[in-house]
Amino acid sequence: MRRKVIAGNWKMNMLPNEAIDFIEKLTPLVKNTKNEVIICVPYTDLFYVLLNVQGTNIKVGAQNMHWEESGAYTGEVSGQMLKSIGVEYVIIGHSERRQYFSETDEIVNKKVKQALKVGLKPIVCVGETLEQREQGITEKVISKQIEKALEGIEQESLEKIIIAYEPIWAIGTGNTATKEEANEAIMQIRKKISEIYGQNKSDKIIIQYGGSVKSSNAKSLFEMSDIDGGLVGGASLNAEEFSKIVQFDN
Ligand code: PGA
Predict the structure, then answer these.
(1) Pocket test for ligand 1, best of 231, 238, 245 (most atoms within 8 A of CB)
(2) Atom of ligand 1 nearest to the CA of 232
(3) Atom number, ligand 1, closest to the C-alpha of residue 214
(4) N or C: which end of the chain has fewer CB within 10 A?
(5) CA 123 / ligand 1 centre spacing (Å)
């Protein structure tokens, strides 16, 4: 049985004082869950959040990183920098990074490799646009994204990777994919992973759904056969709402 992993993605929100407040509220609300809880916060919140989650079951992730170890990349943050302060996870290839910051599948692949190299666990995002879904090429698009993102990754590293299936048309729009659509796409991702790494690995890898997840739809989505939890944007900004998503099975 795969575990359920619920990750919040704050995007470019939350000042340090708001972040500390959030952790204070969330901690007692999720302390008894058996599900894995991660919050992916802006760089400027990382240190405060890491200090405040000590001794709790809340894990911390960043939302991006550079693919090089160090060097002349003004304004960038390396995986090693994140690892050195105690960050455990990092979101790679979020559709907003692909869309607004021109991240290609090649860049995503380089970042995944670097994250693994420094001991971070990547949450790798894939997903189709509305146009691609309407053209009936969803499976082709997400299979290619998976293939490229994981190119050259050893099978032993697979257990450190989480995949997030996030249809772009569902992100921040309120248009959640139906549980059947989400499950179907995630099954296609599992099929692709099984072609590359074999059935055993594809049965084990955690694949989340993301895109307008809220407490009112989390249970029906996360109970589907292949959906192992969610990557939650907007609804992760409120501790109470997020705690309900984390404890969808309560
Ligand atoms: P949303 O964002 O939950 O606000 O749709 C999800 C995401 O972008 O990870």
Answers:
(1) 231
(2) 3
(3) 3
(4) N
(5) 14
Q: Is the dihedral of CA 155, 229, 246, 34 positive or negative?
A: negative
Q: How far is the CA of 198 from the centre of ligand 1 (A)?
A: 30
7 lines ligand 1 (CB under 6 A): no
Residue nearest to atom 6 of ligand 1 (CA): 233
- As given in the structure block, the two tokens for residue 33 are 């869950």
pTM of the model: 0.97
**Index of the ligand 1 atom closest to the CA of residue 235:** 3
Report pLDDT digits (tens) over 182-211.
Answer: 999 999 999 999 999 999 999 999 999 999
